[in-house]
Write a structure and sequence with these properties.
Radius of gyration: 23 Å
Shape: elongated
Order of helices and strands: EHHEEHHEHHHHH
Strand order of the largest sheet: 1-2-3-4
Largest sheet: 4 strands, mixed
Distance between the termini: 35 Å
Number of strands: 4
CATH topology of the largest domain: Four Helix Bundle (Hemerythrin (Met), subunit A)
Strand content: 5-15%
CATH architecture of the largest domain: Up-down Bundle
Number of helices: 9
């Protein structure tokens, strides 16, 4: 495999051409150029195939693109690599799994989150576990809250929906719950209302316990309570499971549209 390059410039071209859906699909991918010995349509131009490497999940979606969508991606590459004499001429595109991308695994409680092409979220999962293992329960609570906040922002970013960087966790979740149809009031069945109301309770609980006991704020001498391991493990476990649930719900919604 030749040296891989980031695909950021191509994403900008696709967004400019109103193909945000393709830009989202290619986000996090890298590419290389496979230059052949065959001449193209210009004088001594060389026919070249773009090889795009992405996560397994996205590679399968890219392979399923229509010929027209693939042609649009090729045309986007013509912006940084214009067709001209004595140069490469991009004429095709192939999709491969990035060997450096994490593969889905079944032996982790929040396995599906590992497929997200957002390294920061994976870092938060590792931080939660590491801090609990080292007895930093205040820090684990803070990382748990950051994890849920990050998955909410990930979904909003994927949908290109605006939010303020200083929006608190409950505010972010309100916006996400609309996207995922998780607002209790839209359901008539009592069990659904109760479950979805419980989701709001989880969000408020994670945000509140982080504000009260996490390490993101200074402590008052009037507050005597110190977070214990059992409370930290519970908060982290709930945050990881709920983040996984939000991501799975979002993926199911995206596949259905």
């Amino acid at each position: 495999m030749d040296e891989l390059s980031p695909i950021d410039d191509i994403l900008g071209v696709l967004k400019h051409r109103k193909r945000i859906d393709l830009a989202k699909l290619l986000r996090g991918a890298v590419y290389s150029l496979n230059i052949s010995n065959t001449y193209g349509s210009r004088a001594y131009s060389q026919c070249t195939t773009v090889e795009i490497y992405s996560s397994l999940e996205k590679q399968e979606l890219l392979e399923a693109l229509s010929p027209e969508d693939k042609r649009i991606i090729v045309k986007a590459f013509h912006v940084p690599y214009p067709v001209k004499d004595n140069s490469i001429e991009i004429t095709g595109i192939d999709f491969f799994v990035n060997p450096n991308a994490p593969l889905p695994t079944s032996n982790r409680p929040a396995a599906k989150i590992d497929t997200i092409d957002f390294e920061y979220i994976r870092e938060q999962i590792a931080k939660c576990d590491e801090k609990n293992n080292t007895g930093d329960y205040d820090g684990a609570i803070t990382s748990a809250r950051t994890l849920v906040e990050s998955i909410c922002k990930y979904i909003l970013d994927e949908e290109d929906l605006a939010y303020k960087q200083n929006d608190d966790l409950p505010e972010l979740y309100k916006k996400v719950s609309k996207i995922l149809s998780m607002i209790p009031s839209i359901y008539e069945e009592k069990p659904f209302k109760e479950v979805l109301s419980g989701c709001f309770s989880i969000i408020n609980g994670v945000a509140s316990i982080r504000n009260l006991l996490g390490d993101a704020h200074g402590k008052s001498r009037k507050v005597k309570y110190k977070i214990s391991e059992r409370h930290s493990v519970l908060t982290v476990t709930v945050a990881k499971a709920f983040s996984d649930y939000l991501y799975l719900t979002y993926i199911e919604k995206r596949k259905a549209t």
